[in-house]
Model the fold of this input.
Amino acid sequence: MHKDDCFYLGKIVSKHGFKGELHVKLDADDPGQYEGLESVFVSLGNNLIPFFIRRSQLHKTNLLRLALEEVTTEAAADHLMGADLYLPLALLPPLTGNRFYYHEVIGFRLVDQVHGDVGEIRGINDQAAQPLFVAEKEGREVLIPVSDDFILKVDRPKRTIHIRTPEGLIDLYLGES
Done:
C-alpha cells in the first residue's frame, strides 16, 4: 500500500498503560466511525506497515485507544510513538452536496459566477491559515480560498466546482479588468 492510496487518520500521541496500548489523535470530523476498525497502516520510515487491531475504543473526544495485535509491551509501543496512521481511500465515507475531500476534487474545474472558467484544480494548499484551491489556467496559478462562502455548487458528474469570489480576486491572477 502506498500513501497516495490512503488518507491520513491520525497520529500516535501517547501510551495507555503498560501492555502496549496506544492513544491516537484522530484527524476526523466523526471520530466514532473509526472505533470498529480491523486494521490500520502505520507509517514507519518510508513504509506503511499493516497492523491488525485487537480492540479500539474512543477515549475522550478525539482520541482513539488502540490495542494492536503485534504490540503487547511498553517497549513495542515506544517504537510506534509519534507515527502517523493511514487507511485506504476506499474506507472514506462518501460525501454529498458541497462537502468534499481535498483529494477528491483534484482535476475538477473551478467555474466562477462572473469570470467563468478559472482553471483546473491542481491541489489544495492546507498549510496556510485558510485552505486554498490551487488552480491553473493558461499557465498561471490561481489561488482561491476553500470557503463555504465562495462555493456555490460541487458538481461531481461534471467535475466542476461553481464559485462566487469577491470582486477583484480573479483579476489579481488573470489580469482581467
User: Anything to note?
Assistant: Residues 102-174 form a domain with the SH3 type barrels. fold (CATH 2.30.30.240). The chain has a mean pLDDT of 91. The longest helix spans residues 74-80.
